[in-house]
Design goal:
The protein is about 35% helix and about 25% strand. Strands 1, 2, 14, 15, 16, 19 and 20 form a 7-stranded mixed beta sheet that branches. Strands 4, 5, 6, 7, 8 and 9 form a 6-stranded antiparallel beta sheet that branches. The longest helix is centred in the N-terminal third of the chain and has 16 residues.
Length: about 525
């Protein structure tokens, strides 16, 4: 079974790819870009590049050679010391900054054409009149369709300076008309907090997808809103959160921990230990706190989970986290590329290092999910392999474990899909979004006046859309058994219809209603 057969390219303009972020936690400390050229090894590398430039028989792109060399060197260190080439650095930086300047649309490329899934609410495109389903054909008379169009070109033409204008050529399928629109570019937020809603009269829910520069600010706004709505219990969802800035996780932890409680400490090569403590400023120091984690919750997520768990402040619910206890510092090169170099290890308040082994190499390290699946760990807590020597005790005497991730207090197996671990991945991939957009594109008028309840009834009340989705999957891979998970699949299809037609809040209302981890969190 090849999962990649069922992948369709999905480009979300308001969510730059953050593949570099998985398991990444880094600190922002100014560093000198000056190189010590007196070192003989460095001189040798520089001389070799000069020899190739001056004497090699063919013309060679030495920038590419340098990039390969840097990647090779970092590959010998650890899986989280990474090089980010200059053509990728801007997108990664924007993702971590929390915003960019552009036109504000969610889109994907459909048949070599930019198709608008939805304009960002209140953004430049919505203000200019762009609607879901519109095709963007050109920007300032430069064609943006065809087989040769690249992601880089799309971004370069749709992004720009604040208050700069771009003339877009639009084709609106619903009216079969082509026309031009002037859009004034502006700052578009890249949300790291997806939603903050009430699960019931007393329990709030906040979903954090990564830890960017704006995460704490976004989190605090959501937390204050929920407190005003009467929340005295809070569920923080860190599932599939690959990490980010350490200081953002620390600031969030401070909202729940009393003054002078240890949040985290780091230790560098020179054995220097830096401890970070909570302050007296937390707004939720007494309410009930539950954190949700899974095998893709990493680094900053693990710092937050470890701080809550080790201080006996709340429960961690879910499955063992990724297991990343290294800290990176971002170091820029003059050409715009950067390197994230591991400079320290971090430890939870009880003294745990939760870093898993990477002795078998980066590929094995990053693909450990399949080993957990084969070992049965995703379905049974008893299958989690942890050495007795890595036991630690919290102040209240609870046993917690180091070495290989945060082990939850309450284990929740992978949601039952009859042993087919691929289905949850498919449901949370771009496949569902792609499918729903195309269905709406063909029949948007059938949904134009439907409210939330009517949309749910329309999608879940019959097998029409499930059968259409199943047909799409089976065209690419006939070995996936979807029927055994029909209700699970229909839930995600209905949720995606709600997201594209109504918004994020309605999407989460659907997916959380029958979420097994949410049910477990509400029980404890």
């Amino acid at each position: 079974m090849k999962v990649d057969k069922v992948y369709f390219p999905l480009l979300i303009f308001t969510a730059i790819a953050v593949g570099f972020l998985l398991g990444g936690i880094f600190v922002r400390i100014p560093v000198s870009a000056k190189l010590n050229t007196e070192n003989q090894s460095k001189q040798k590398l520089n001389k070799l590049i000069d020899f190739i430039n001056d004497e090699y028989v063919d013309n060679v792109n030495t920038d590419s050679i340098v990039d390969q060399t840097v990647n090779g060197i970092l590959g010998k260190l650890d899986p989280h010391s990474v090089y980010i080439a200059k053509n990728e650095a801007q997108g990664v930086a924007e993702s971590m900054k929390g915003d960019f300047v552009g036109i504000g649309v969610n889109f994907f490329v459909d048949n070599d054409t930019v198709a608008v899934i939805k304009p960002v609410e209140g953004g430049p495109s919505e203000k200019a009149g762009i609607k879901a389903g519109d095709r963007i054909l050109s920007a300032n008379n430069e064609k943006l369709f065809g087989k040769k169009i690249t992601t880089e070109k799309l971004y370069s033409k749709l992004k720009g300076e604040p208050n700069s204008e771009v003339i877009l050529s639009i084709f609106r399928k619903s009216t079969n008309k082509k026309f031009n629109l002037k859009v004034i570019r502006n700052v578009i937020p890249l949300k790291s907090v997806d939603i903050a809603i009430m699960l019931n009269k007393k329990t709030g829910y906040i979903k954090v997808n990564r830890f960017s520069e704006t995460t704490y600010k976004e989190f605090k706004v959501g937390l204050n809103k929920l407190v005003k709505q009467g929340a005295n219990s809070l569920v923080i969802d860190l599932r599939d959160n690959g990490g980010g800035y350490l200081d953002q996780a620390v600031s969030i932890a401070d909202e729940f921990l009393k003054d002078k409680k240890l949040i985290v400490f780091t230790k560098n090569k020179k054995k220097r230990i830096d401890k970070t403590f909570a302050t007296s400023d937390g707004v939720f120091e007494n309410g009930k706190v539950t954190l949700l984690i899974n095998e893709n919750s990493a680094s900053a997520s693990e710092i937050l989970a470890g701080a809550i768990q080790d201080n006996d402040r709340g429960l961690v619910v879910g499955r063992r986290s990724f297991g990343k206890g290294l800290v990176q510092r971002e170091m820029p090169f003059q050409d715009g590329s950067t390197v994230r170099l591991t400079v320290a290890r971090y430890y939870t308040p009880t003294g745990r290092s939760i870093q898993k082994s990477y002795k078998e190499g980066s590929e094995e390290y990053l693909n450990e999910f399949m080993n957990r699946y084969k070992n049965g760990e995703l379905y049974a807590k008893d299958s989690i392999k942890i050495a007795d020597t890595l036991k630690f005790k919290t102040p209240k005497g609870r046993i917690v474990y180091g070495g290989g991730g945060i082990v939850p207090d309450v284990f929740v197996p992978l949601e039952s899909t009859k042993g087919n671990e691929v289905i949850p991945m498919i449901m949370q991939s771009g496949l569902v979004s792609n499918f729903v957009f195309k269905e709406l594109d063909r029949h948007r008028n059938q949904f134009s006046n439907l409210n939330f309840a009517q949309i749910i009834t329309k999608i879940e009340g019959s097998d029409l859309y499930y059968n259409q989705f199943k047909k799409m999957i089976e065209l690419n891979d006939s070995f996936i058994d979807l029927d055994s998970s029909k209700n699970y699949i229909k839930r995600y299809i209905a949720a995606e219809f709600c997201r594209q037609l109504l918004g994020e809040s309605q999407y989460y209302q659907v997916v959380l209603k029958d979420d097994v981890m949410i049910k477990e969190a509400l029980k404890n």
